[in-house]
Amino acid sequence: MLRHEFRPGRAVAGLVMLGLAAGYAADAAGAWEVPWTFFLPLFFGGLWLAATVTWAAYMLRRRRAARKASAENSGAPASTSGSHAIR
Questions:
Q1: 16-20, long-range: CB within 8 Å, 24+ apart, which pairs?
Q2: Looking at the domain assignment, is residue 83 inside a domain?
C-alpha cells in the first residue's frame, strides 16, 4: 500500500534540479567549464516539462475517474411516465 499518491511532475522537477546541481558542482570543481547562462534554459525547460507531466497525469486521472463512474452507473434510468414507459 502506498503511503501517498505518486506525483510524476514533482519527480521530474526533482530530477531536473539534481541534474542542475550536478552541473553546478562540476563547474565549481573545474571539471566542466560552461557559462552560468547555460543553466537558465535547462532550469526553465525542466519546470515546463514538470508542469506538462503534471497536467498529463491530471488529465489521465480525471479520465480514469470518469470511466469508472460511467461503468458503475451503466443502467438506464427507470421511466414511469411519458411515451417511453413500459406498460
A1: 16/42, 16/43, 16/45, 16/46, 16/47, 16/49, 16/50, 17/46, 19/46, 20/46
A2: no
The CA-to-CA distance between both ends of the chain, in Å, stands at 51
Mean pLDDT (the chain) is 84
How far apart are the C-alpha atoms of 24 and 12, rounded to whole Å? 18
Which range marks the domain in which residue 19 is found? Answer: 8-70
How many structural domains does the chain have? Answer: 1
pLDDT in tens, 39-65: 999 999 999 999 999 999 989 888 887
